[in-house]
């Protein structure tokens, strides 16, 4: 911050010098001498004209005209040179007002239209980066708020400008981008980390996860190549199976998704808490596979979902805000299949979502067989922030069943 103010002061000093220097050192011009030279030149020209006119017989009193011309030349001689000196002194006294005007104008305009608050926040974030990083990495710590996540992103970007070869910093930035659903930042940062530290399985795994959330087919193909490479390593990370299953399910290759989920189940064993969740995912994929082989059993196109939302006693409804209702696949994927935005009214309230609320044209709500529903009271109108928002969600259910949700949790 100090460097910023020193820099502005130096720029201001240079500007003042460029403006004030000509005032303090005016170019000395001898106006009297210049006027004398001009009068002499005029006198000589007029004498030559009179000589020509006299020879031509135009004038008859040449001597009188010459006498008058000499008198005019004498009358135009200046009395003194003091006026010029007084004028130069007055100009020098203008330097002080000019300097004051420059200072007031520069810092006044910056105070009105500059980004002083943002610069101050930026420097504070950069100095607090180690503390924010420790808070993020502490598994038993309090979850970072959206503002803290944004601050951490800003601090990391600032540090990476001076240490562009810090692979750990790029990985951290990429994972924060994933957490904030900023896929472009996540892919860019993790790609940079992969170039700095090639063939690092942990970085490659994080990169493939980011690429799978992209809408670009080139990114999706790249994710598949990375996962296939990791799948053929001597020691396969369990997350590779999960990502391969997720990718296969989104591609509609339900048989392959089931295969990967079963391999993952075999690795973790039935005592693991994730086993039951994987079982539900397998069942969902199996129903989708059955629908592919027997299309007549599919739900009618546009099956609506009726959702009744109530509030727990501790929820305080804000004066301004909106109700966000989203429908997800039964495996709890964070990306909604369909969503609706409603004004806040008295609760309980009932809403209905159907194919018209689908987020992606190629994947309609009616294409699912099992779903789960989430509801959130958004307090600031920005769906990407969740600080102090109340929310709730349902258990996995069959598409077409009525849903009842209680909003009872706070971010």
Briefly characterize the structure.
By secondary structure, this protein is of the alpha+beta class. The protein has helices at 2-24, 31-55, 62-75, 82-93, 95-113, 116-127, 129-137, 146-162, 167-179, 183-196, 201-212, 217-231, 238-250, 254-268, 274-293, and strands at 305-311, 322-329, 338-343, 349-353, 370-378, 390-393, 397-398, 403-407, 409-410. The chain crosses the membrane at residues 6-24, 91-113.
Which key phrases capture this entry?
Serine Threonine Protein Phosphatase 5, Tetratricopeptide repeat, Immunoglobulin-like, 15 helices, 57% helix, TPR repeat, Cyt_c_biogenesis_CcmI
SS class: alpha+beta
**CATH-wise, what's the superfamily of the largest domain?**
Tetratricopeptide repeat domain
Q: Which CATH architecture of the largest domain is right?
A: Alpha Horseshoe
In total, the number of domains comes to: 3
CATH-assigned fold name of the largest domain:
Serine Threonine Protein Phosphatase 5, Tetratricopeptide repeat
The largest sheet is: 6 strands, antiparallel
Q: Please give the alpha-carbon distance between the first and last residues.
A: 34 Å
GO cellular component, one term: cell envelope
Domain Cytochrome c-type biogenesis protein H Ig-like: 305-406
Domain Cytochrome c-type biogenesis protein H TPR: 118-275
Subcellular location: Cell envelope
């Amino acid at each position: 911050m100090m460097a910023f103010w020193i820099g502005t002061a130096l720029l201001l000093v240079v500007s003042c010098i460029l403006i004030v220097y000509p005032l303090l050192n005016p170019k000395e011009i001898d106006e009297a001498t210049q006027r004398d030279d001009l009068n002499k030149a005029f006198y000589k020209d007029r004498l030559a004209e009179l000589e020509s006119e006299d020879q031509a017989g135009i004038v008859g009193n040449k001597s009188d005209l010459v006498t008058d011309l000499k008198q005019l030349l004498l009358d135009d001689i200046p009395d003194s040179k003091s006026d010029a000196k007084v004028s130069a002194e007055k100009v020098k006294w203008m330097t002080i007002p000019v300097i004051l005007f420059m200072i007031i104008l520069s810092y006044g305009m910056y105070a009105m239209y500059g980004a002083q608050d943002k610069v101050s926040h930026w420097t504070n974030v950069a100095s607090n980066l180690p503390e924010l990083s420790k808070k993020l990495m502490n598994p038993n710590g309090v979850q970072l708020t959206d503002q803290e996540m944004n601050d951490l992103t800003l601090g990391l970007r600032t540090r990476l400008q001076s240490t562009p070869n810090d692979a750990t910093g790029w990985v951290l930035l990429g994972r924060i981008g994933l957490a904030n659903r900023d896929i472009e930042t996540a892919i860019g940062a993790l790609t940079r980390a992969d170039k700095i530290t090639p063939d690092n399985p942990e970085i490659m795994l994080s990169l493939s996860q980011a690429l799978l959330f992209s809408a670009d087919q080139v990114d999706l193909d790249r994710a598949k190549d990375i996962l296939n490479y990791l799948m053929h390593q001597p020691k396969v990370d369990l997350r590779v199976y999960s990502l391969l299953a997720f990718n296969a399910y989104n591609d509609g290759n339900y048989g392959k998704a089931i295969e990967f989920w079963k391999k993952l189940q075999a690795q973790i064993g039935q005592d693991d808490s994730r086993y039951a969740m994987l079982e539900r995912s397998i069942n969902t994929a199996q129903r989708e596979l059955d629908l592919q082989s027997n299309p007549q059993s599919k739900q009618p196109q546009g099956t609506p979902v009726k959702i009744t939302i109530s509030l727990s006693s501790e929820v305080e409804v804000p004066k301004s805000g909106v109700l966000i209702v989203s429908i997800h696949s039964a495996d709890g994927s964070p990306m909604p299949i369909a969503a609706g935005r409603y004004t806040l009214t008295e609760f309980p309230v009932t809403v209905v979502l159907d194919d018209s609320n689908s987020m992606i044209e190629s994947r309609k709500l009616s294409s699912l067989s099992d779903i789960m529903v989430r509801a959130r009271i958004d307090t600031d109108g920005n769906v990407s922030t969740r600080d102090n928002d109340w929310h709730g969600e349902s258990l996995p259910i069959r598409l077409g069943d009525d849903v009842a949700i209680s909003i009872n949790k706070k971010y």
